Amino acid sequence: MATAWTLPDHPKLPKGKKVAVVVLDGWGEANPDEYNCIHVAQTPVMDSLKNGAPEKWRLVKAHGTAVGLPSDDDMGNSEVGHNALGAGRIFAQGAKLVDSALASGKIFDGEGFKYIKESFDNGTLHLIGLLSDGGVHSRLDQVQLLLKGASERGAKRIRVHILTDGRDVLDGSSVGFVETLENDLSQLREKGVDARIASGGGRMYVTMDRYENDWSVVKRGWDAQVLGEAPHKFKNAVEAVKTLRAEPGANDQYLPPFVIVDESGSAVGPIVDGDAVVTFNFRADRMTMLAKALEYADFDKFDRVRVPKIRYAGMLQYDGELLLPKRYLVSPPEIDRTSGEYLVKNGVRTFACRHGHTDGTSFVDKVIIETVKFGHVTFFWNGNRSGYFDESKEEYVEVPSDSGITFNVKPKMKAVEIAEKARDALLSGKFDQVRVNLPNGDMVGHTGDIEATVVACKAADEAVKIILDAVEQVGGIYLVTADHGNAEDMVKRNKAGKPLLDKSGAIQILTSHTLQPVPVAIGGPGLHPGVKFRSDVETPGLANVAATVMNLHGFEAPADYEPTLIEVADN
């Protein structure tokens, strides 16, 4: 059935107001204490939104079932958060899709598995991905089920190429994950399956770069996984991880690449012609670059040296626009009719330009992001789709990130530059919606550096001020929110909420996202004076934001969208 793209007018809210949508990455709401970097930081702008009119500030859920994840023990992430913010509905997400496909066995009946299975008789099955139970990019139990299912369906030789985590889970937890996997593989060997770990390395140093930030990360992985070459060689993976972790300054995220070798010193599992490869991460952003290296015949990002003829499938398809990879084990959520597409299609027809033009070209969407979050307010917001809906109505601007350093070294990142581009877009009069992602709280929060994260939060707050001042100047409306928590809690806690200590009595730093709710604040001189947050929306989450934004533009949302967060009082 063809989509009816025309949105009804909102009965009480006018069209034509300029709307700024600001997403603070990793900015949740938690109890104030010394480990809440948002609380410790000087954030006068966000404080004023929170402590201003109570009917213009509220919290929404940004994790678990509210963003399509399997359970409320699953922390949110940028991908599912921006999917929900943009789609206006809740779609079963990565982990959940894979869980149901594994539980039903459907994964083993699909085209993707049938394709890789053709290599089982004469080749090796290679599994590459993040080994942890963090649930953001992958999950250990899924890998275990995949190993079991593949071996029961004829895989005789299996090699696992592990990437250690320490970012979505505690640093040091890698050893336990490797021991668990080694135990599973030894049980497979007892059943006559030649199953071993073949290589490894830390996720931030080996393989899992994103947005083409640093191809040398992918090359280090390629050399170990495909060529069987790495600076460190070990007889087994537990010894490898323990030894490399013992080096000064070492941590799970940045372990150097290693290969496992046999008695003669030869790598036990390079990828060769006739093999099958599965990248088992379900989240796209940090697998896309490896997927290109594995799949593209025409590839110039680094010298691959040897390009084996393989059967390759992703756990999911990582980029629907690029159709990358071509084969996958689990079909992605079909996210259609996103708010961005609706608004662009309605703008062409129904907005009058602020400058009095009547040619119907008023609704234009300008999106500004820093490279590390480039996909977030474009690709993920638009339902895992790259590119424009209508190039004449949209402009996407990328602000390059600092490369070659960890984000705690320059925690201000490019927040001011992003905000200035947003300000200029608003003041230009060309755009009706300006959407930005400010990555500081998340990217610096992931480093575990509390002092730097405090600086990062202050920088993000200063950026918000620049944008809100511009909204004020153009008589516009703002909606400020976040995609998930991170910077608001930087310490592991016990059941009572007290900080956990390690053996030496130091606090255990939390580098991952959190389960905390995130704020939504609305305001600006263009906001109808009767607008306030509703109190009757049951467990509101990020998906309720899309209808809210449509209302601020003067439209009613489609009937199947999650309900708007706002209502208009008559007085």
Automatic annotation (TrEMBL):
Main location: cytoplasm
EC class name: isomerase
Description of how the protein assembles with itself and partners: Monomer.
Family membership noted in the UniProt record: Belongs to the BPG-independent phosphoglycerate mutase family.
Reaction(s) catalysed by this chain's protein: (2R)-2-phosphoglycerate = (2R)-3-phosphoglycerate
Residues annotated as catalytic: 78
Associated pathway: Carbohydrate degradation; glycolysis; pyruvate from D-glyceraldehyde 3-phosphate: step 3/5
Domain BPG-independent PGAM N-terminal: 98-319
Binding site for Mn(2+) 1: 442, 446, 513
All copies of domain Metalloenzyme, residue ranges: 17-556
Record protein name field: phosphoglycerate mutase (2,3-diphosphoglycerate-independent)
